[in-house]
Amino acid sequence: MRLTFAPLILSVICLFATPARADVGFQHFEINDPQGAPIEVGVWYPTDAKASVQRLELGTQIVATDAPVKGRGLALILLSHGHGGSYAGHTDTAIALAQAGYVAAALTHNGDSWRDSSRAVEIWERPRQLKLLDDYLQGEWRDHDIIDPKRVGAFGFSAGGFTVLAAAGGVPDLTAMREHCRAHPSFEDCRIVAQSKPVLGQPISWVQDNRIRAVVSAAPALGFAFGKAGLAMVRVPVQLWRAANDQVLPSPDYAEPVRANLPGPSDYHVVPLAGHYDFLAPCSQQLAQAVPAICMSDAAFDRAAFHTVFNRDVVAFFDNVLARPD
């Protein structure tokens, strides 16, 4: 759910304050990973079935579990959480997408989740895992035939924002971490990398997914590591978000270099008064008590109101760039 490189593993578990309408189906399952443990997946989609309150990790959502999918030729949006998160990290956005007629599928990144973040520095594993999710949904998933393979997008936040850019063709240079961390040794990303320096010199294979036709990247991690050459092959439309008061991935090292180095203009949004965690859904009282650091916003910032706009704009972006052909 986030890239803070801090030990707030419970931050993934959001208790969403705004219930979904009754037209969202939900499936929860695992898919095989030939290089590791099974990957946990959640899928939200339109349905005519009656929804009810269901548990979601430590929270709830209003969905129709394992209900039939409504429609055919549906666009697919893949969702990637940030450091220490899970598939449930952006449920409000997934539900908004499903209400708008999309299949929204999120995974829990093995090695960088609230259960186990011991391999968070191996960030190249994330786009590989995201492609496995796309492979499964368009191949083995029981409802794969309702997906339009020409209408696939990806949404990511923080480390997930990095993930979707890499999956869409970005090739970062992780050796840029050395100069970055010499200048900013107190940054949280530099603290965790300092404990794992040997990985920066090893050969890395970046797995890309050329089926992805559009990307939403919110507060992307490691934006400075791409450069113009690294983003030259990201030729799909990009919606890019930055929190004006991001103290976790502070300006100007993350979203700004991505914007400057993309080969074309992005749909760029700067959110006044917002902090890094304001891209997460509004917190319930229980979550605020469990992990207050991710639930505190500026006194003048209304996170719930922002999410209404945020989810609307994310849906509108995908509607525009993944529109059905005439």
Architecture overview:
- It is a single chain.
- The protein has 326 residues and is an alpha/beta fold.
- α1 packs across α9.
- Helix content is 26%, strand content 23%.
- Strands 3-4-1-2-6-5-7-8-9-10 form a 10-stranded mixed sheet, with helices on both faces.
- It is globular.
- The longest helix is centred in the last third of the chain and has 19 residues.
- 50% of the residues are buried.
- The chain has 9 helices and 10 strands.
- α7 links the parallel β9 and β10.
- Poorly predicted runs of 5 or more residues: 1-22
- Count of discrete alpha- or pi-helical segments spanning 4 or more residues: 9
**Main β-sheet, spatial strand arrangement:** 3-4-1-2-6-5-7-8-9-10
Shape: globular
What percentage of residues falls in helices of 4 or more residues?
25-40%
Largest sheet: 10 strands, mixed
Indicate the structural class. Answer: alpha/beta
Q: Average pLDDT across residues?
A: 90
> Tally of extended strands?
10
Please trace the helix and strand order, writing H or E for each element: EEEEEHEHEHHHEHEHEHH
